[in-house]
Amino acid sequence: MKNLSKFLFVFGLLCMISSDVQGDRSFITVKNELNPKDKAGPRLIMAYCKSKNNMIGPRYLKFEEIMIFGFKTNVWGTTEFWCVVKEGPHYNKRYGSFTAYKAKGLFVKDDGTKWNWSAKDDGFYFHKGNMPSLKLANWTMN
Ligand SMILES: *[C@@H]1O[C@H](CO)[C@@H](O)[C@H](O)[C@H]1NC(C)=O
Ligand SMILES: *[C@@H]1O[C@H](CO)[C@@H](O)[C@H](O)[C@H]1NC(C)=O
């Protein structure tokens, strides 16, 4: 009984701290940067993102259109989002998927950071803050 009330006390404290620390949100963005001058022409992409409890999209994006959504990292720091992007006009020939966000443990602070992803002709690029843009995933052919 004593241990249980101690546990509940600590648990309550953790929840209080976390709701305070996590006053803000983080954001994921996905942008269509497929070159409209490519021989395939301008193409839409279809994008959706998922976590254990949420599904955002699908959204259809034209060249330079952006999908954006905010989220809160859970107190355990286990929040993770995966995104799937399919290339139009068929949406079944080329697709890609990537881990768009993965929390790194307890008490991650959501501070308005944008985790920006771009679909380009040669793959998926990640960009955040002052970091250089990095290619982190390839397209897969069906
Ligand atoms: C991330 O994307 C948003 C929405 O397009 C943009 O306003 C912001 O400048 C981008 N951040 C970086 C670091 O590129
Ligand atoms: C993408 O594919 C190329 C060629 O197969 C490979 O060299 C590269 O490592 C891959 N990049 C990623 C981020 O998986």
Could you explain the architecture of this structure?
The protein has 142 residues and is mainly beta. The chain has a single domain (2-141), classed as Immunoglobulin-like (Sandwich). 14% of the residues lie in helices and 43% in strands. The strands form two sheets. Strands 4-1-7-8-9 form a five-stranded mixed sheet, with no helix packed on it. β2 and β3 (55-61) form a beta hairpin. Bound molecules: 2-acetamido-2-deoxy-beta-D-glucopyranose (2 copies). Residues 29, 66, 68, 114, 116, 127, 129 line the site of one 2-acetamido-2-deoxy-beta-D-glucopyranose.
Offer a concise description of the structure.
Belongs to the plant self-incompatibility (S1) protein family. The protein is mainly beta. The chain has one helix and ten strands.
Structure keywords:
mainly beta, Immunoglobulin-like, five-stranded mixed sheet, five-stranded antiparallel sheet, 14% helix, binds 2-acetamido-2-deoxy-beta-D-glucopyranose, Self-incomp_S1, self-incompatibility
What structural class do helix, strand and pairing data support?
A: mainly beta
- Give the overall silhouette: elongated
Which small-molecule species are bound to the chains here? 2-acetamido-2-deoxy-beta-D-glucopyranose
The number of distinct structural domains comes to 1
Low-confidence stretches: none
Helical residue percent? 10-25%
Gyration radius, in Å:
19 Å
| Largest β-sheet summary | 5 strands, mixed
CATH class: Mainly Beta
Number of strands: 10
The CATH architecture is Sandwich
The fraction of residues in strands falls at 35-45%
Number of helical regions = 1
CATH fold-level name: Immunoglobulin-like
Q: What's the arrangement of strands in the largest beta sheet?
A: 4-1-7-8-9
**Terminal CA distance:** 57 Å
The residue-averaged pLDDT reads 89
Order of helices and strands: HEEEEEEEEEE
